């Protein structure tokens, strides 16, 4: 009898073990097979060939450094100096960087004994230590040089265009212009552009030194020039971040205000009519299912691009989410408190106010505050689609594909913004509900 | 008896007075808070309305225009709808694939980050703050940021979206996972340690079986979110159904039937996965209660 018992128990245990073993090996195996399928479905081998290493390199170096362009127009011999080669970063008339010298023969010192000399008749001399002196002459649309036939891989030369990349900087020669890029660490002109009198002036001097601009006070002028910095657009960015937070705030709070009364309609306890309840629930499911993306697309058609569209898209989607969770919270209220309030002769509205609301408020607030933080992130993404806030500025900066230092700046700002909102929502939750489930 | 009465009468009065004062103060504070909130909402709405290309009140009655145009055109060409749905189905599969691969990779990353960042379980306790901050940063970066940078380097397609969603998922799940892991019973871990088990073995055999139901539940919830995210990223150029939607929209009238087909597919998918995942999540949490 006992022998048989043990036998069946053993068979049962064996079966259990076999199933567990199958599961333990089966799940990773299925995932592995799935990854193998994805590897080919996403064309990863092709991607490896398509990876743009140059793009990655510009991205990596541009994030922490900037370049100053020295450009000679070979038609009229004029030499221009500009940070990142942009109009906004041009040196004012008559000014030039300290590493450029000479009047008839302009000499650009790239550092490390690498020098470029702009000679008359559109001739250019490039001195590269360890390689020698490269001489080039621009004539019409052609460039003639003294370069040998076999070139190192950092020189790229044809009869139309010569590009030399040295560790100190880059030199590009074409018939129409000769360009020298000198690289420096850091984000240039972050505080003031070159046309501001405060450029290159220390903070101590601005605060306590003599008046720099006769027209205005030092601090006023410095703040105004910083705020209206054309290169970094601090004012626009502050507005954009404000817009993004505004979208999240309006969307989340508006959704909560609309969802709360509707949630009563969806809760079994408060709405005995099945049809009404089911209709409200389907409405919640519908607005949630349509998703913020489609709402954004539809609303952008009616309201045009801007923060309001983004806020409404968040509002509509989150009404569904809040409605669902709020009605679940309402289902779970304790009857005893409502009975207690009823026993004092309270009318229905008073029963809700004093019997139900105090019970659900902590749950609802926690939910709303959590969404406030998460919607700041959504607002960044929706902004990129609908055209508002920091998301739009970021996509624009990325699409121009050259101001990567600005992209890095925006990314840092976005991360700081989201973390601040996270902290704020946590702090508010602690203040309003108490630390118990904070 | 009389002395007691005279003593208790003023004290009741005191209590009532201080109670009324307290209630009054509370009402004042909540009233003020409410006022600030209303002012913020109204002024915020006005600012948003000002900075929007079209105004709220002018746009309100146009809300139905676009959907009804799309619907009308789709209804006219309703015979083509199944064909279009079949045409866009591969793009939908790509969107789902992006979401699921990103969820799996993100869950594995989140698991490792959470175990390394939980007190009592971490392999290197002194590095806990490092791993926590790292997952905070991963969580704070919106997917679109990584996706756009990755598109620049890798070119368009599903991989940039996958990487972006996976990184964000890893950060988000690391936080939720480590909240669960903090409450895990350490006795099995100690038992395993006494047999000379390595850190990996202790985690796999001692911690994971305890937390698995919660972890799977959170991962499923994340999968729902990621399907939406993957559709949105497609819209900015990362492939899948979102990309097709943008193309169909760019064509404007005449191709609204395509937009309608994509709307239907996307809506159906989101609802389907929401239902499936919430059913499984319910089962997982119920199993835990028993």
- Determine Rg of chain B (CA atoms, Å): 28 Å
- Oligomeric status: heterodimer
Biggest β-sheet of chain A, characterized? 6 strands, antiparallel
Tell me the number of helical segments of chain A per DSSP (H or I, 4 or more residues long). Answer: 12
CATH superfamily of the largest domain in chain B: MetI-like
CATH classification, class level of the largest domain in chain A: Mainly Alpha
Specify the structural class of chain B. mainly alpha
CATH superfamily of the largest domain in chain A: MetI-like
Q: Which architecture of the largest domain in chain A would the CATH scheme give at its second level? A: Orthogonal Bundle
Gross morphology of chain A is extended
What is the overall pLDDT average of chain A?
Answer: 84
Number of domains of chain A: 3
Bulk shape of chain B = flat
The structural domain count of chain B equals 2
CATH 2nd-level architecture of the largest domain in chain B: Orthogonal Bundle
CATH topology of the largest domain in chain B, which one?
MetI-like fold
Segments of chain A where pLDDT lies below 50 for 5+ residues? none
Order of helices and strands of chain A: HHHEEEEEEEEEEEEHHHHHHHHH
Helix content of chain B: over 70%
Question: Can you offer a commentary on this structure?
Answer:
The complex is a heterodimer of chains A (438) and B (290). Chain A has 438 residues and is α+β, with helices and mostly antiparallel strands. Chain A has twelve helices and twelve strands. In chain A, the strands form two sheets. Chain A has a six-stranded antiparallel beta sheet. Chain A is extended, with a radius of gyration of 33 Å. The model of chain A has no long low-confidence stretch (mean pLDDT 84). By secondary structure, chain B is mostly helical. Chain B folds into two domains: 2-60, no CATH class; 67-289, Orthogonal Bundle (MetI-like fold), CATH 1.10.3720.10. Chain B has helices at 2-51, 56-60, 65-76, 81-116, 128-140, 143-154, 158-182, 187-194, 199-238, 241-251, 256-289. Chain B starts with a helix and ends with a helix.
